[in-house]
Amino acid sequence: MNRKVVLSGIQPTGNLHLGRYFGAIENWVHLQNDFDCVYCVVNYHAITMPYNPVKLQENVWELVYNLLACGVNHESLFIQSKIPEHTELCWILSCMCSYGELSRMTQFKDKTDQVKEKNKDSFVSCGLFTYPVLQAADILMYRADYVPVGKDQDQHLELTRNIAQRFNAVVGKDYFVAPEALYTETPKILSTADPSKKMSASAGDKHNIDLFAPVDTIRKQIRSAVTDTGERSDTMSAGVENLFQLLKACKQTAIYNELLAEYSNQTLSYAVLKDHVADAVIQMVQPIQDRKKEIIADKKAVKDMIKSSSMNIRERAIATLNEVRSLTGLN
Ligand code: TRP
Questions:
Q1: What is the pLDDT of residues 61-112, one digit of tens each?
Q2: Distance from C-alpha of 220 to C-alpha of 275, rounded to nearest angstrom
Q3: Long-range Cβ contacts of 198-202 (<8 Å, 24+ apart)
């Protein structure tokens, strides 16, 4: 049986925190059971924003170790720049995508503002403008049927489908598959320090709980989570709900139900709730942290492994490019 292809990409920026784990990576790991999965560390995308080359290199490998520790199969994982065909396909597709379409991308507008805010001397790169075309290349390269992404990537996926259609029209053949987003119900985790915000790396250290932080730090962060003012209210505060979400995400259903009942009876102590959440999170991250220790004990072996999986996946990219070159008259 031919399994459907799933493709996703992750930026090698920021740390791997609980929000990113529950929101994406855990799902990536599950999808491996049912699909032909291709997962990409998108370092070409990472250079569209002002960046530091030494740090980028470090971040890429750190992310690789982290993803492997979380259970991503090494055969499914590659580093984007190890497959330069992505840039060639990106160029060809950029000629099948209009300037107007790209100007309407909201992520481009948001990131343009970010660049300007951060440093008035930095510039908005052309790469940032064509970022969505490179993403389309990532997806179309492997004829992905499904792309597991968050809602924020809807516009990019829609554009990918348009580009695929235009390509097919230009070459007169139904060559590219129009991919679909794969929405899986994933827990949305908020910042424990400020539950009005999503948990995120960019908001600062206290706004995310790193999967690989020392367990004492994790416990401390959860203990200091914002809950509510203690006043009676009909609705659960975002902070308390977030703690319950974490319990559920860690699959502690029995404790979840028990504490929820206590909450309803107004007998729940938030200190007790936090202790349970901390225990659950630590129990969840412990084996992942242990696996990471084993992985980084032999970094060279991991690097060789990923280079070789990248080479295997590259074969698929080369096959696509051969066909694309001949369909587009660039042979
Ligand atoms: N733009 C995506 C993000 O910011 C990352 C990405 C790059 C991606 N290429 C992709 C996601 C291909 C899915 C498929 O999260």
A1: 999 999 999 999 999 999 999 999 999 999 999 999 999 999 999 999 999 9
A2: 10
A3: 198/19, 199/17, 199/18, 199/19, 200/14, 200/17, 200/19, 201/13, 201/14, 201/15, 201/17, 201/20, 202/14
The rounded Cα 62 to chain-centroid distance in angstroms is 14
**DSSP codes, 192-228:** SS-TTSB--STT-GGG--BTTS-HHHHHHHHHT----
- The Cβ of residue 324 has, within 10 Å, a number of other Cβ atoms equal to 23
Q: Where does residue 289 rank: exposed (0-12), middle (13-18), buried (19+ CB within 10 A)?
A: middle
**Which residue has a Cα nearest atom 10 of ligand 1?**
9
Q: Mind listing the pLDDT tens digit for each residue in 129-142?
A: 999 999 999 999 99
Instruction: Report the 10 Å Cβ neighbour count for 31.
Output: 20
Tell how far the Cα of 132 is from the centroid of ligand 1, in angstroms: 9
Token pair, residue 41, equals: 């560390």
Sequence-ordered list of residues with C-beta below 8 angstroms from that of 273, at least 6 positions apart, any chain: 227, 240, 243, 244, 259
Rounded to the nearest whole angstrom, what is the distance from the C-alpha of residue 326 to the centroid of ligand 1?
Answer: 27
Instruction: Give the mutation target among 43, 83, 153, 158 for probing the ligand 1 site: most ligand atoms within 8 A of CB.
Output: 153
Three-class secondary structure assignment of 268-287: CCHHHHHHHHHHHHHHHHHH
C-alpha torsion sign, points 45, 197, 242, 183: negative
Give the residue whose CA is nearest to atom 13 of ligand 1: 8
Q: Give the binding-site residues of ligand 1, using a 6 Å CB cut-off.
A: 7-9, 11, 42, 45, 135, 138-139, 147, 149, 153
Q: Strands across the sheet with 5-10, in order?
A: 77-79, 36-41, 5-10, 146-147, 180-181
Residues of the chain with pLDDT under 70: 232
